[in-house]
Design brief:
The structure is a homodimer of 248-residue chains.
Chain A (H helix, E strand, L loop, with lengths): L1 H16 L3 E11 L5 E8 L8 E2 L2 E3 L6 H13 L7 E6 L10 E9 L13 E10 L10 E2 L9 H18 L13 E2 H12 L5 H13 L4 E8 L7 E6 L6
Parallel strand pairs in A: 1-6
Antiparallel strand pairs in A: 1-2, 1-4, 2-3, 2-7, 5-6, 7-8, 9-11, 10-11
Chain A binds a DNA duplex (27 and 27 nucleotides) through α5.
Chain lengths: 248, 248
DNA sequence: TCAAAAGTGTTAGCCGTACACCCATGC
DNA sequence: GCATGGGTGTACGGCTAACACTTTTGA
């Protein structure tokens, strides 16, 4: 008990008066036309990591929740409101930011690339969609970034964690639909390309079709619109639309 | 761009000089003999939430990572070192602590109940193993706590999140082995009781046995010791032991 | 005619679930 | 003999992976 008290007090008191900064970083994933998984990043034009690429992020306000801070950042970067975001993980290594102690709560969102307005914020001179690839269950050192861009802070680690989580969730959630251009009119083909981009592997078309029919249509998450799609093949296919989640 | 800048700066500047506090809360789960899922909690003897029950936790030090802070807390509460802990989620509602803004990073660990030394720390007058139960995919208001104890802060929400996560991980990880009394000598029966306590439902014994053989033994995570177990049945069964993870 | 995508069909294997049934043994 | 846990067997249904095959139609 005395040992425990001593340990407790030493750490407790130290932190009572000095607080770390708390930030959110946002991973905004998209899939571009050729089927590549990309991430919205900004190039820093101030130290530290000047000229390196970083995830959009910023410090949280005292009067906003973490989720609100993440949504605010997303809006600042893309102009988009009301998008589904999800907390990924919280990164808290002591030296992850060379300036001062910063705890960063990472969030991610999936957005169709088209029609996003993207602005560089303060501290950055440009933004870009950066292509990323990672082997199955890959580690941070296996992450490949577009033309080997240098990444700031521990963002290589954050991205790796996010890609692995994203892939894991593909199999048991409908998370990928966030990347559809038009949730009211899409072809199975589009969704398959999205899955392939995220997983970085080709999928068997007949089997993917069946997966879609059982996991989405049969479960009431999507239905055929009745319209024919001629965008991707000479032979007509069907358009589908997402349905509002079946609230119980 | 101007709109974005203005929004950004207002929130950014505000947080530059005032920082939230950052804490870790630890969920230490155990299963007691009758097969009940329990959580180590402390009773607060200072406001706010005086006399209410809370998760052990505390503010992080400036020179320790989040993981280190969580391990330190765990050691203070149980005297145990080197236990596997896992980050659960970060809770950051503005008013989750009435005193001041506190961001809490929750961690959880699974520990066998026996042979834990548990100390109440400062701000608490006692500790207890509190039985909890929750319907499948239950929400915070469906969480049942031992004799309806009052819970402090948003800990009802934190616990609910943890129980649901724990249950989810049961099916695709070996997380439950953390609750075995002796990882070098256990019977399938013990593991089944652990699963049943976590899931709060009876499992089919023959099927559980097959699950164990294929998921643990065939995959090299466990092996029979060769010794017979007579603790749970008149008829002898086998003892098993865990094997070190097959590093690749 | 060829290529590319839309579909249908078929196989084999794996897994989870639900049972029926026998074994061993202490009470 | 009965209850309790140990253990084998079996059968069904759902799902995945792999792959063969037909259809449609523009270039």
């Amino acid at each position: 008990m005395t040992i425990s008290d001593a340990q407790f007090l030493s750490a407790y008191d130290a932190s009572q008066f000095e607080h770390p900064s708390v930030a959110v970083d946002i991973l905004i994933f998209t899939v571009d036309i050729p089927g590549r998984l990309e991430l919205l990043m900004i190039r820093r034009d101030i130290p530290p990591f000047c000229n390196a690429w970083a995830l959009p992020g910023g410090f949280i306000g005292m009067k906003e929740s973490l989720d609100e801070a993440a949504r605010r950042k997303l809006k600042e970067e893309t102009g988009l409101d009301g998008v589904e975001i999800e907390q990924l993980y919280t990164f808290g290594a002591v030296d992850r930011d060379p300036r001062t102690r910063v705890i960063s709560v990472a969030y991610f969102a999936l957005l169709p690339k088209a029609s996003l307005h993207v602005f560089p914020g303060p501290g950055a001179d440009r933004t870009a969609w950066v292509g990323i690839s990672l082997p199955e269950n890959g580690t941070a050192d296996q992450l490949q970034v577009d033309s080997g861009l240098e990444l700031a802070f521990d963002h290589r680690q954050i991205i790796t964690t996010a890609v692995n989580r994203l892939r894991g969730k593909l199999s048991y959630t409908d998370i990928a639909v966030g990347l559809l251009q038009d949730k009211n009119r899409f072809a199975i083909y589009e969704l398959q390309k999205i899955y392939e981009a995220i997983l970085d592997q080709k999928l068997d078309t007949p089997n993917f079709r069946r997966m879609f029919l059982t996991s989405f249509v049969s479960r009431g998450l999507a239905e055929a619109t009745g319209e024919d799609c001629l965008e991707y093949s000479k032979r007509a296919s069907k358009y589908y639309r997402l349905l509002p989640a079946p609230q119980k």
